[in-house]
Amino acid sequence: MLTDIQKERLYKQQYRLVGEHSAVKICFWTKERIRNKDKVCYKEHFYDVHCVNCLEMSPAITCNQRCLHCWRDTSVFSEKWEGDADEPKEIIQRCIEERKKLLMGFKGYDQVDILKFNSYLIPDHAAISLTGEPCMYPKLHLLIDSFFDDFNFRTVFLVTSGTVPEMLKKIGKESKHFPTNIYLSLEAFDEESHKQFNIPVAKDTWNNVTESMKYLSTIKNKTRTILRITAVKGFNMDKATNFVPFIELMRPTHIEVKGYAFMGHSRKRLKEENVPTWEEVKEFSKELVKSSDYKITAKDEPSDVVQLTKD
């Protein structure tokens, strides 16, 4: 799935590859908490996850889109899943082991609470969001079950572009558990802008996105559904009202408006001028409030994210 050059590049970026198609990495916010700093991921503020015990991973390094704003290496892409799929329990166990190895160096920092450090090595929150499109992994629904049943995870978040609705429909039907949160990440506001900005390599991806939204509207009593709108200056920030039909279609538990961050590989595709200010992110959120029955319920400036909830 990966060339030697791609593997080496990921390793230098502190990814650790697991099996044939999975990866794990330590999140910036997890590192900050281990260093005993006050900063935490906004998800801890909004949803009570344990930031310091987060396992950020993906069971699919590959993706079916090459989004301009993505900080990942979008040279790793494919139209569909190819080859065998590693077993969920094995993936999780290996990810936990690699995470532990990555964290061991923090024992040398003066700010680290050594008495608590061993508890940091045991993750209880999974963020299935690191890279690629996780819904392409054909055993994703069983991976979610394994997090809860085999490893006793407290919370599991799934982030998807919505391009593989058939996998979303398996979760909870061909498995026991739903994730705690299901995020559908959206930047485009119509099919043309989707092709321009998300650069899909698979067919019918825009129709799949809207199909996923429609399906997620039916499972709100089983999990939190979140429509994440990435605000990109010069692309969609004057299009707030264009997102209202998708809000009405998905009827998410929450909306999150998150400002684009100029980082990683996205710096080769976009410019620093595409990063909105915090005031602009809040203003975009207020425009959504004016055009929908959602209201602002939380804000986190360090992460440039505003949460909206149905009024």
* Tally of individual helices: 11
**CATH evolutionary superfamily:** Aldolase class I
The average pLDDT value, as a whole number, equals 95
Strands ordered across the widest β-sheet: 1-2-3-4-5-6-7-8-10-9
Number of domains: 1
CATH 2nd-level architecture: Alpha-Beta Barrel
The H/E string reads: HEEHHEHHEHEHEHHEHEHEE
Structural class: alpha/beta
How many individual β-strands?
10
What is the gyration radius calculated from CA atoms?
A: 19 Å
- Binned, the helix content reads 25-40%
C-alpha geometry = globular
Give an overview of the whole structure.
The chain is 33% helix and 18% strand. It has 11 helices and 10 strands. The N and C termini lie far apart (45 Å). It has a single domain, classed as TIM Barrel. With 311 residues, the chain is an alpha/beta fold. It has a 10-stranded mixed β-sheet with strand order 1-2-3-4-5-6-7-8-10-9, with helices on both faces. Helix 10 (244-250) links the parallel strand 7 (224-231) and strand 8 (254-259).
Question: Which tags fit this structure?
Answer:
single chain, 311 residues, alpha/beta, TIM Barrel, ten-stranded mixed sheet, 11 helices
Brief sketch in words of this structure:
The chain is of the alpha/beta class. The protein has helices spanning 4-12, 28-34, 42-47, 88-103, 114-120, 140-149, 165-170, 191-198, 205-216, 244-250, 278-291, and strands at residues 16-18, 22-25, 54-58, 125-128, 155-160, 181-186, 224-231, 254-259, 294-300, 305-310.
